[in-house]
From TrEMBL:
Gene3D superfamilies: Electron Transport, Fmn-binding Protein, Chain A. Belongs to the non-flavoprotein flavin reductase family. InterPro entries: Flavin_Rdtase-like_dom (IPR002563), NADH-dep_flavin_reductase (IPR050268), Split_barrel_FMN-bd (IPR012349). Pfam families: Flavin_Reduct (PF01613). The keyword Oxidoreductase applies. It comes from Rhodococcus jostii (strain RHA1). This is Possible flavoprotein oxidoreductase. Keywords: Oxidoreductase, Plasmid.
Length: 181
């Protein structure tokens, strides 16, 4: 490795340095949404750690901070939605990333097959249910079993080096809606 790349010793870097290095990996952004069974109101959070895990069975995973006050409320719902955000939804991401308050005050949505919030103008969504949670330091890795899927034709919201962005040349995708049993 070049010395210019290897400028931090593995036993001396701090969390800020780690975050700065990881910000060089461009990611999409998702919003995890559900209906809080206690208050019958929508609840959600934003995440950029999302991945496909398995096609058979259909599994996805995302990471949630242990300090999240939204995830405990979402996880009690029977099902929730992983909304893959489009470039037009930066405001949605900012609303759901905020702590406290009515995160859904300015957001429009429609119900998924089980009633969880599908955010308007999204790139795609997956309705899922909790399969497993795994301890991961200051986060929890949530593995979810996918039950319904839908994809539209928008361009993705990208997060890179602490800022939102977009893909310049992105072909439209065909619409896909399917239930997974």
């Amino acid at each position: 490795m070049h010395d210019s790349i290897m400028n931090e010793s593995t036993d001396t870097f701090d969390a800020r340095a780690m975050r700065d290095v990881l910000s060089h990996f461009a990611t999409g952004v998702v919003a995890i949404t559900g209906i809080d069974p206690d208050g019958d109101k929508p609840v959600g959070l934003a995440a950029n750690s999302f991945t496909s895990v398995s096609l058979d069975p259909p599994l996805v995973a995302f990471c949630v901070a242990r300090t999240s006050s939204s995830w405990p409320r979402i996880r009690t719902a029977r099902r929730y939605v992983v909304n893959i955000l489009s470039e037009a939804q930066e405001n949605v991401c900012r609303s759901l990333a905020a702590r406290g308050g009515n995160k859904f005050a300015d957001l429009s949505w429609s119900p998924s097959p089980s009633g969880a919030p599908v955010l308007d103008n999204g790139l795609a969504w997956l309705e899922a249910e909790l399969k497993a949670e795994h301890d991961a330091g200051d986060h929890v890795i949530v593995v979810s079993r996918v039950r319904h899927i839908h994809a539209g034709g928008e361009a993705p919201l990208i997060f890179y080096k602490g800022k939102y962005g977009r893909v310049e040349h992105f072909p439209l995708v065909e619409t896909i809606t399917e239930s997974v049993r």
